[in-house]
Design a protein that fits this description.
Layout (H helix, E strand, L loop, with lengths): L4 E6 L1 H18 L5 E7 L3 H9 L6 E9 L10 E5 L9 E9 L3 H11 L5 E9 L12 E5 L5 E2 L15 E4 L1 H5 L1
Parallel strand pairs: 2-3, 2-5, 5-6, 6-7
Antiparallel strand pairs: 1-9, 3-4, 8-9
Helix pairs in contact: 1-2
This protein binds inosinic acid (IMP) and magnesium ion (MG).
Magnesium ion (MG) binds next to loops.
């Protein structure tokens, strides 16, 4: 285990086996559709890489990067697109790939925004769900694990851009936050 962590809450084996299960379900549900996996940078990339390699159907992939406005006047519930998709999504079956849904504001904004671009369908696939902190009505259509209200890192999730490369999900030691 990485020395900055105090515990691993989801092991690499559990993540990989859950991804196979999700990929099987998605392959079944989208077999007659035109699947576009829309990945939200940067946290969703590990999940995309493993999930897409377990699909048995054709898919295309596109990326988007968003950030919360944190200007002094605005409460940080506005979301700004910093990198948009390269191609239109009209008539595509869009599946948003996320690392985690926390209060849900990012996805709430994004799904509303993307609906104007007239996709045929739009669904959400997240590896982790932290429902205790939800402040919107957003629910994942596919979810790997429900987790308690703890800040987690690893497998795409970061603290100050670190730990994304860990193959498991863990909780940091208290002293790492304070240092
Ligand atoms: P929300 O659902 O709008 O609150 O935003 C979710 C985003 O916040 C995720 O895509 C992550 O980038 C970040 N986030 C939320 N919870 C955690 C966590 O426990 N660890 C690391 N990043 C998190
Ligand atoms: Mg994210």
């Amino acid at each position: 285990m990485h020395p900055d962590l105090k515990e691993i809450i989801i092991t690499e084996e559990k993540i990989q086996s859950k991804i196979k299960e999700l990929a099987g379900q998605i392959s079944e549900d989208y077999k007659d559709k035109d699947l576009l996996m829309l990945v939200i940078l940067r946290g969703g990339v590990m999940f995309l890489a493993d999930l897409s390699r377990n699909l048995t159907i054709n898919t295309s992939i596109d990326f988007m990067a968003v950030t919360r406005y944190s200007g002094s006047m605005t409460p940080s519930n506005e979301v700004k697109i910093i990198k948009d998709l390269d191609k239109p999504i009209e008539d595509k079956d869009v599946l948003i790939i996320e690392d985690i849904i926390d209060n849900g504001k990012t996805l709430s904004f994004l799904t509303e925004h993307l609906k104007h671009r007239k996709p045929r369908s739009i669904k959400i696939c997240t590896l982790l769900d932290k429902p205790e902190r939800r402040k919107t009505s957003i629910q994942p259509d596919y979810n790997g694990f429900v987790i308690p209200d703890k800040f987690v890192v690893g497998y795409g999730l970061d603290y100050k851009q670190r730990y994304r490369n860990l193959p498991y999900i863990g909780v940091m030691k208290q002293e790492i936050y304070s240092s």
